[in-house]
Design brief:
- The chain is elongated and about 115 Å long.
- The C terminus is likely disordered.
- It has 4 domains: 145 residues, Sandwich (Jelly Rolls), CATH 2.60.120; 104 residues, Jelly Rolls (Sandwich), CATH 2.60.120; 146 residues, GOLD domain (Jelly Rolls, Sandwich), CATH 2.60.120.680; 196 residues, Rhopdopsin 7-helix transmembrane proteins, CATH 1.20.1070.
- A hairpin with a 2-residue loop joins strand 32 and strand 33.
- The chain contains 11 helices and 33 strands.
Length: 735
């Protein structure tokens, strides 16, 4: 045998603390056919700074689809089937780097996914630039050992082989045909070179994580041994590994035989249904021969097809796959939404999910029983949703298990006519829905019994679009797309259906009122600015108050939301108004000449607008203008003090009653904004930030110029009559 080793690598990713599925970093690999050994090389590292501490990294593995994980222990939506993922933990303690190997023998070919993340996020809102988070990096590499000339075991043909030693097991493969109802594997004529008792172990199937359904057969002595499998995976290569359990120097000669039991399906005329579907979508052309007789012909053949279906082992129902969008598919039954289900043989529907881009959503299957169509009382329609191969005997197997997989059961009856199943991240494969009528014991006419079941199946990025308290986000890893729900207002879970920590409607309304009405504290600052003739500054404060109010009204996570314009526009205007308000306030305190002040106003506003467009949440977008304005203010104050030969401002009352309180309020506001805000206390800590900043502006604004008189409203706005003189010049023409 010739073995070939291959190596696949992907770039490292920076890990994040976990709060939703988007924080998990996904790696997507493809394992080739005939792989006998798979080795993962997992490399984790962290920074060397003092902020880096010991950390535990969780790594999840899954074949066929991204792993379904639940690090926060939240609830999944009702009717969702969840099987725990296979995961390991990597600890970064004193060592800066950790290397871990994970070996998988005889792995299943196809897509494999790895998801890595840090522990649960603390929930603290960190201002970009105030603190430097520790970088935790993770990289996954894949080594495969592939057999280039794996022998093929032909069905019904005995194949003799020799196992040289226990260290070199024998690998063969057999192709499972479509509609295979069962497989029988036989091992016979087992002879050792030392003429001792033969002892071999046979492993059928490949490993698929998180669950593996390999079948193991141990054969001892010269007696033939066999293994029967129900519903093997259709149209796939099945790996078989035979290894010797004898001594190291003894070779073993065996003969293998594989045989299949093929089921003969019966179905309605798919060709006629396809013509009927085209006519229903586009309409029959006028004057087309046979356009009106197609439906009559198919209806006339229905009794003949039904009689043929009674003698077959399964009934195929034609299904059309309709692609709607990314990770969005709808399945349409050509015979209508209702399918006939009988007790003799299962009704089979094929749900095609093998494009490689369908595993990043949620498969939803809903059944609705027509109670009037059931001829027997207390009858039940059992259903199984399976990947790779269907369940062909639902009356005997109620747990929906096949040869190498475990399906998902469903059932409807006259007492419970509806049933729904949600498969999160379905693996890439052909999926099958099997339905069969189960009649109660003691009731006659079992062969003639039939029921009508309406089937609705579709693939959606996020189930129920994450509900009213979640947002469905489309995530990307290289060319692979998958979806996840980001929850808000305290809701959690895979589809934002877990209300354990959810905010009540009253709490949501309170949060909205606090964050919006706290901006009204700018009204005193606006009044002070207008009274002291700082009209430009008052305009900036009004702009900031308006957009901060409506930005926070639009930014709310709950139901108390009002957006007067695009969210991104509101956010940009709020950030711009906040920084420009600080800029003009400090420049106003500098008491520079008017022409210079207004030039700095405009130039600074333009530069701030540019920097916010580059990085809206950078701390230097606020600290930069503040520091530069403070330098200008201090230089101006030093100039005024030198010119007057005493401290500026000269009044101690100005320092004690205005400047010191204003500076204190501003310092407390920055401390609350930078170090105290979390996701839980955001609505009141940020409201405190609004109040403190607005109050500090009212204290810090300087008094008006001495040569300006106060506003005389009685003289400015007159409401009495005045006698006006109308001067008119008359022009005379001179001739």
């Amino acid at each position: 045998s010739l073995y070939v080793s291959e190596y696949f690598s992907q770039s490292a990713q920076k890990l994040s603390f976990y709060s939703w599925y988007g924080n998990a970093k996904l790696f997507h690999f493809h394992v080739p056919e005939d792989t006998v050994l798979l080795r993962w090389l997992l490399q984790a590292s962290r920074g060397k700074g003092p902020e880096c501490t010991s950390m535990e990294i969780t790594v999840h593995f899954r074949h066929g689809a991204p792993p379904v994980i639940n690090p926060l222990g939240t609830r999944f939506p009702a009717n969702a089937t969840v099987r725990p993922s296979y995961n390991i933990s990597i600890t970064l303690s004193s060592a800066v780097q950790n290397t871990t190997f994970v070996n998988v023998t005889t792995p299943s070919a196809g897509d494999w996914f790895i998801a890595a993340h840090l522990p649960e996020a603390a929930g603290r809102i960190e201002v970009k630039g105030f603190s430097t988070p520790c970088p935790y990096m993770f990289q996954a590499d894949m080594f495969v050992l592939r057999l280039t000339d794996m022998p093929v075991l032909e069905p019904g043909v005995p194949m003799p082989h020799t196992i040289v030693s226990p260290a070199k097991p024998l690998h063969v493969k057999v192709f499972v045909p479509k509609h295979a109802a069962g497989m029988r594997f036989e091992l016979r004529s087992c002879v050792t070179s030392e003429k001792k008792a033969c002892a071999v172990r046979v492993v059928l199937g490949s490993i698929t994580l998180p669950q593996s359904f390999q079948r193991i057969l141990t054969c001892t002595g010269s007696v033939n041994c066999s293994l029967a499998l129900d519903s093997p995976p259709w149209e796939k290569w099945l790996q078989i590994m035979v290894e010797s359990l004898g001594t190291a120097n003894a070779s073993v000669s065996v003969e293998m035989l594989a045989s299949f039991t093929v089921c003969r399906p019966g179905s309605a005329s798919s060709f006629l249904n396809f013509i009927s579907l085209n006519q229903s979508q586009t309409g029959a052309r006028p004057g087309t021969p046979g356009a009106a007789g197609s439906s009559a012909q198919s209806a006339g053949e229905a009794p003949h097809n039904t009689s043929g279906q009674r003698s077959s082992c399964l009934q195929n129902q034609p299904v059309v796959r309709e692609d709607l969008d990314v990770v969005s598919v709808r399945y349409r039954l050509l015979n209508g939404p209702s399918v006939p289900v009988n007790a003799l043989s299962p009704t089979l529907l094929l749900l095609n999910l093998n494009t490689g881009m369908d595993s990043g959503g949620s498969l939803v299957v809903s059944l609705l029983l027509n109670k009037t169509s059931v001829s027997l009382t207390n009858a039940t329609v059992a259903a199984c949703v399976n990947a790779a191969s269907p369940v062909l005997s639902l009356n005997a197997t109620r747990n929906c298990s096949t040869a190498f997989s475990q399906g998902y059961p469903l059932s409807v009856s006259t007492s419970s006519a509806e049933a729904t199943l949600i498969v999160l991240y379905p693996q890439t494969d052909d999926w099958f829905l099997s339905l069969q009528l189960l009649c109660p014991k003691g009731q006659g006419e079992r062969n003639a019994a039939e029921a009508k079941v309406a089937v609705f199946a579709y693939l959606t990025p996020c189930f129920n679009d994450c509900g009213p308290y979640g947002q469905c986000s489309l995530l990307r890893r290289h060319g692979y797309l998958y979806a996840g729900c980001s929850c808000k207002a305290g809701w959690g879970g895979w589809s934002c259906t877990d209300d354990t920590k959810a905010q009540s409607i009253g709490a949501q309304n309170l949060a909205t009122l606090l964050l919006t009405l706290s901006n009204l504290m700018f009204l005193p600052a606006i009044a002070v600015a207008v009274y002291r003739y700082y009209l430009v500054e008052a305009s900036v404060y009004t702009y900031t108050m308006f957009f901060s109010t409506f930005y926070h009204a639009c930014d709310q996570p709950g139901v108390a939301v009002m957006c007067i314009m695009d969210y991104d526009t509101l956010q940009y205007c709020d950030f711009l108004g906040s920084v420009v308000s600080i800029w003009v306030t400090i420049l106003c305190m500098a008491r520079v000449k008017k022409i210079l002040k207004y030039v700095l106003f405009m130039l600074g506003t333009l530069l701030i607008a540019m920097s916010l467009q580059l990085d809206r949440r950078g701390v230097w977008n606020m600290m930069g203008p503040c520091l530069f304005a403070l330098v200008i203010m201090i230089a101006a104050w030093v100039h005024h003090g030198t010119k007057r030969r005493h401290c500026y401002p000269s009044s101690w009352k100005r320092w004690v009653f205005y400047l010191l309180p204003g500076i204190t309020l501003a310092f407390i506001a920055v401390s609350v904004y930078a170090f105290m805000e979390t996701n839980e206390n955001y609505y009141y800590t940020h409201s405190i930030w609004h109040v403190l900043v607005a109050c500090s502006v009212a204290f810090l604004l300087p008094p008006r110029d001495k040569h300006k008189k106060p506003w005389a409203w009685s003289q400015k706005l007159t409401c009495r009559y005045q006698i006006c003189q109308n001067d008119r010049e008359e022009l005379y023409a001179v001739t």
